[in-house]
Amino acid sequence: MKYTGNIIKYGDNVDTDVIIPARYLNTSDHKELASHCMEDIDKTFVSRVQQGDIITAGQNFGCGSSREHAPIAIKASGISLVIAKSFARIFYRNAINIGLAIVECPEAAEGISEGDRVEADLDNGIIRDLTTGKEYKTEPFPDFVQKIIENGGLMQSIANGII
Fold this sequence. Notes:
This protein is α/β, with parallel strands linked by helices. It has helices at residues 16-19, 30-34, 45-48, 69-76, 89-98, 106-111, 143-150, 154-159, and strands spanning 2-9, 54-57, 81-84, 101-104, 117-121, 126-129, 135-137. It has a single domain (2-159), classed as Aconitase, domain 4 (Alpha-Beta Barrel). It contains 8 helices and 7 strands; from the N terminus they run βαααβαβαβαβββαα. A 7-stranded mixed beta sheet has the order 4-3-2-1-5-6-7. Helix 4 (69-76) links the parallel strand 2 (54-57) and strand 3 (81-84).
């Protein structure tokens, strides 16, 4: 699994209420959720995010409520990968379940800057900042997690008989 994109960077404790505000939880339409993604923390996010972009963040990304809407909004907005120092446990599992690639790598999350172009090879656990030339190591995803993400999420993987 390889991802290449430009970085949109956030700090610590980005909670699910700012990823997708509660006032939009009455819809399950992915495009509608994406149109409001990050609007309470970053009004420019939806106008600047491009397909394949990557989010980096600090500690405890996705804290707060256990709403599955948050990783859905991120994925539907075009984000291909989230790299953070750490994730809230429920957000981490929800992201995998809906097929959003996420990886904990404190060094990369700290060292990569807003706007940098990054290539992440999650098969081999290598994150390269193509802008600065720096390289970061992380744990590769286990095969079963790779299969879930590649197939668009847990339910899709089950429906396709992949797992």
